């Protein structure tokens, strides 16, 4: 990805690009590293990461990596992040509004020019820095009432670390790196994406 695409971005930002524009497993794993670095995760201190229900975030490789980084991931039920995700409620709304205002300013200051992909991060950076306040994030937690005690059983079994596909019974550790795994939200068991025919009608 061109460095020019990140020009003017807030300090500490990283950028990744893919063909679809949607998060995928490969990029989420990179994001976990970035998150871990900035969340100040240390050995005896776990950090909570609230995620939506997108399949790219709920795969065994991501869960395993998060666990190794002392990150506890909590997945929200489908179609609820706009109500339950603290950042959706406390930060993204004001950020969207401020970004729109910054775009208007940019257009006013650059008559007869269009905003290009090389201008977006600079505009976004200004919007982000003007609304990025701890109070807004805290307010997001108050609005969503996201309070729950998370406890972790320290006695992990072999099945927790190296589960098997409920269809083909192959173990995770013996699968190919390109194979996607998906966890059932009800029973907690794992399946290869291909074995479970996920996404097929």
Automatic annotation (TrEMBL):
It comes from the Eukaryota. Residues 17-116 form the DDE-1 domain. GO terms for cellular component: nucleus. Signal peptide: none annotated. GO terms for molecular function: DNA binding. InterPro entries: CenT-Element_Derived, DDE_SF_endonuclease_dom, Znf_FYVE_PHD, Znf_RING/FYVE/PHD. This is DDE-1 domain-containing protein.
């Amino acid at each position: 990805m061109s460095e020019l695409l990140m020009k003017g971005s807030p300090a500490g930002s990283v950028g990744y690009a893919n063909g679809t524009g949607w998060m995928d497993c490969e990029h989420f794993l990179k994001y976990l590293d970035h998150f871990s670095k900035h969340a100040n995760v240390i050995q005896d201190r776990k950090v909570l990461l609230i995620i939506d229900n997108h399949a790219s975030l709920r795969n065994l490789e991501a869960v395993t990596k998060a666990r190794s980084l002392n990150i506890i991931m909590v997945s929200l039920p489908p179609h609820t992040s706009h109500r339950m995700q603290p950042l959706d409620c406390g930060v993204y709304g004001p950020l969207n509004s401020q970004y729109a205002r910054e775009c208007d300013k940019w257009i006013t200051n650059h008559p007869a020019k269009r905003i290009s992909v090389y201008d977006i991060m600079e505009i976004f950076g200004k919007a982000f820095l003007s609304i990025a306040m701890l109070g807004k994030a805290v307010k997001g937690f108050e609005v969503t009432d996201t309070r729950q005690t998370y406890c972790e059983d320290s006695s992990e079994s072999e099945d927790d670390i190296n589960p098997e596909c409920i269809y083909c019974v192959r173990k995770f550790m013996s699968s190919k790196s390109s194979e996607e795994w998906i966890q059932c939200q009800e029973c907690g068991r794992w399946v290869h994406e291909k074995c479970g025919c996920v996404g097929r009608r």
